[in-house]
Amino acid sequence: MNWRRGLKWLNFTLFIPFLVIVLLMYMLLFTQLGLNFTVWLAEKFVPELTVKTSSGHLLGQLQLQDVQWQQDEHNSIVLKQLDIDVQVSCLLSGKVCINQILVDGITVNINSAETTTDEPSTSQAIFLPLPVAITTLAITDANIKLNGHQLTWQQLSASIDAWGSKLQLDDVLWQQVNFTPAPEDTSAVTVAIKSQQNSPAEPFSYQTLQLDDINLPLAVYISQFTLTDFTLHTATPQYISQLQFAMQAQKQQINVTQLHVQHPQLTVDANIKLNMTNNYPVSGQIDILVLDKLLAQQKLMINIDGDLADLNINAIATNNIQAQLAANLALLTDNLPIRASFTANEANTFTLDDNTTLSVKATKLELNGDLQQLLLSAKTNYHLTGIPAGSIDLIGSVTPINAKIDKLLIRGLGGKTQISAIVDWQQELQWQSDIQFNQINLGILLQDYPGRINGLLSQQGKLASDGSWLVNMSKLDINGEIRELPFTLRGDLQAQANNNADADKISQVANTHTNTNTNTNTNNLVNLELLNNISFNTKKLSLIHGDNSINFNGGLAEHWQLNADINIPDLSKSVADANGNVSGKITVSGARLTPNIAAGLQAADLHYQQFSLDMLQLDSQIQLAEQVSANINLVAKQGRYQHNTLEQLTINVQGNEQKHKANIELQSNIAQADITFSGQLNSDTNWLGQLNQARLSSAQGEWKLQQATAIQYDLAQQQATIAQHCWAQQQTMLCLEQQAIVSAAQGQLALTLDDFALSTLNSLLPAAIETDGEIHAKATASWQPNIAPKVAVTVQGANGNAKLNDAEVINLPWQSFNLQLDSAEQLTADFAIDFTDKASIKAQAVISELMQAERKLAAQLNITAFSLDFLQPLLDSSSDVTAEVNSELQFSGLLAAPDLTGKLSVDNIKIMGKRAPTSIENGSISLAFLGETAAITGNLNTPDGKILLTGDANWQDITDWHATMKLAGDALSLQVPNVSLKVKPDLTVDITPQLTLITGVVEVPSANISIDDLPQSAVGISSDTILLDEQGLPTQETDAAPIPIHTDIKVILTKGVQLQAFGLVTKLSGELSVKQQDKGPQIYGEVALVDGTFRSYGQDLLIRRGKLKFNGPVDQPYLDIEAIRNPESTEDGVIAGIKVVGPADEPIVTIFSEPSKPQANALSYLIAGRDIGSDSGSTSDALTTSLIGMSIASSSKLVGNIGAAFGINDLSLDTAGAGTNSQVTVSGHLSRDLELKYGYGIFNAVGEFTLRYRIMRRLYLESVSGLDNTVDLLYKFEFD
């Protein structure tokens, strides 16, 4: 029983309590109830803590939502969601394993009024009793605020392992990080500034570093840390796209490897090792690559070695700048000893702007000393664009209280400049400098001002802590020679400011002027008073160049007395491209607030580049008193600028604020004006004036003001008010119908224009265009801030006409037109013009969303029965040109790229007549638009057949639009000067923004080409010829076609093509390829001369072989022609002729015979048909006839010009007949149908007069009077 009692006792005292404890621990750690209890307990013990929702269990998966710790309104922590997943099984192996800790939406606000500084303590090692492994730690959407500083990031994630005294971080990723520093405490800055102003500045002193050995309590290993998209928000935001590194930190050593920083302007790669013991030894390498445009791809390699007591830094720069730096710093020594040397032996070039570069080489800079006295020496050679090379030597020093330049020697510009200076800031900022230069060649900098100058400038100055300052140019002495004349600038100049402005005095001055109704000038006077603490003074300042001089003396202080004397008898001596003489005097005197300004200037014979002025005179008296008054007279006479001339300009202003008037008179070749106005300054309306009279004249007529007009101008609001008035030009009236209010912010206008003659505008149009008719117009406009302007315009006109006076006069009359514009929330436009009762053009457009960047368009264009008959004068009176244009087009969509739909057609096309290039009996061309595409179709009926035109276009991509058009059909007759032909085209035209390509085949079944003389256009203009415009100025060369044109056309010539030119009569046959790319047209192929004759040496020769070979330029064919005398008229069976071989510009002409004969005998056979030895008389006659024929041929152009001068067209000299019947003939046309000819015998003195009249196209009536008189009726016909 005892054991049972004992067992029972054990159950109640040990086992049952243990089971209860185990059960409670299980419920607490592994159930939702336990989690809820834990949260409730935490909220009870921490009243500031609240948890809205919890789920899961403590050991396992746990989730808390809307967790908040709120101490007060300035200190709080909020978690949107916290997820923890603990792996319980790891506890059995003595390890804490957490699969993930996820924190989403954390917001921290901490504002501590006081900051505490922890006392330094010795670091003790940290040892974890159990290993801890966190597979995933992630904190997203974080916003941390600490004492005004703000840190936010999108995501921070890592993997953590910790055991003993070691911590391992893997795959650390920090994304989209933003840091904003706390704003500066301006009140503290102000207090600091005041404190500095009231006490002398303390010299800077270096605080020597005190280093203790440090043992890290925890070894930290980071395998990879990555920071992306980091932004530092300051006045100038800084952005780092990526930062990466790996780190090992244990005991007294920190080792950072694979450090990489990516910045928009540079990249940094580094490896650094630091031991935190024994003066902290450090070593590392830093590589910098510059990405900024100015120094793109610049590389800098920095090596660090030593410890903080003896730190060595070596840097090497390569690429754009090549230099080396060696420095030594003793950071643990008082006053920080420094030794540094910078060298750059190679030339380094810097681009200052588009046209200027600076190159320096052999550069050396040395620093030695410490912060108590740092000695500086430097030297370099430099070269600046446009300036000869030079050198710079510098010796100086810097201490905590001053900086000193012992010598700064600059050699350059043909001389040298030496500078010495000292700047002291111990008590207040003070400086003193001397600049001396010798033999400086000014012409190097200013080519128009050659010469050498010497000089000495001595300056002293100071800047006090209260803002007062003093600058004293105690000696200014520059002398030398400029433009071969002596030059001097001598004198002294002092300027100072005392911080003692009297605010009460300023207020008193302002109130005084307000009470006298002159508040419009109060601001200016107060501004002068604010300058009361600034004064300028010079005993004498003289600028003298040759006989020209400008002298200043006096000062501007409490009492102003400053004089300037100008005496320039010859401006050309001192100013390049200028001529004339200028003289005058300017005096400023009186009290500071009420000075008097008197100026008298005279100038004569002024010239500067294209501007000239014979006389200029200015006389002015201005008094800035309580009542500002002025008397200003300006007269300018005989001015010229380019093609514009000024006869005289006179401006006169006189009076005071309460009553003043002005008159402006202008006489020039562009316009004449006579304007008089008066006014006064008023406290209520500011300026109140009246335009008393005005007359404006130009080539378009004279406009005259019909009545005096009141004008008000509010200076405060910058707003003008103009009363109702009218201007007249003959019967035309331009009126402001109601009072106008105009300013930049708001306004309203109402204008009418009656009986305006369009002929007034003819002087503004090209010389060949004239208009006639009258229009009437009305316009209103109003605008307000933040509201779209409202504009309404109506223009109406009755009968009118537009005339083109060219080779032929073309008239385009109309019966009426009307234009209406209205703009409010949208712009509406309506336009209509009626040419006849049936023909008209009407357009309507609406542009909406005017205040938006992308405006919308809805418009239509209707053309009804618009006849092209007005083009009839382009052809002769017997020709006929008719066509009718119709359209119904709609525009919609964005204004910048609207869609186009509808149809445009040209119907009833008819072109007939002798001067028409071709005959079209009937035809039509139609364009159909559908959004961003279009199609073209055409059908032209000619007497010879039909021509079909098809094509399409697409502009969906406005930068890559394209259009294609095809032309094909039956043979088409063409008439051009000297040529009548038929062509059968089959062409394709492809057009893109980059290229126009024309391809296809043109067949010429028949043609008749008759050329008696080359047109003037056949002789090009010499390359050294300069063409002038109407004003006598060189014309600009015409730019190439906006879209390059390429061609690839095959031209087929059949035997129906006949040519008559310069004695050559033949048929042409062959194929040519016409190609054009970057150069002009090129022709390739061969043309054969078939059944041809050639008149040479007074004979009609038969072409036995003839070829024209083209292999490039049009005007450079290769000739291969052989022409012989008719064998039937040649004795002895001999064949005689000529050979023409070679390029067209340099052919080789030879005479030959078969069988071969000497040249003299061959020439006799060619000319006379017989040998020299047979019948010398007739042979001599033939030779004589040939020589006369060749002489006449060389003078044909001169004879033609003489005939044209006497009204005889196509006057020409020639030979006719053969043997003893040979004649010299002169012929020409008195009209198109009447031809006369006179021939005189070479070997018999008999004249013959012929008169031929064309009755019909091929029927002629001819009368011949000579030894025999005849009257003949001739009919001309041709056959193949």
From TrEMBL:
Key words, A-Z: Membrane, Transmembrane, Transmembrane helix
Translocation and assembly module TamB C-terminal domain: residues covered: 944-1279
GO CC, alphabetical: plasma membrane; TAM protein secretion complex
Membrane topology note: Single-pass membrane protein
Subcellular location: Membrane
Entry-linked InterPro entries: TamB_C
GO annotation terms (biological process): protein secretion
Main localization category: membrane
Transmembrane segments: 12-35
Top-level taxonomic group: Bacteria
Protein name: Translocation and assembly module TamB C-terminal domain-containing protein
Phylogenetic classification of the source organism: Bacteria, Pseudomonadati, Pseudomonadota, Gammaproteobacteria, Chromatiales
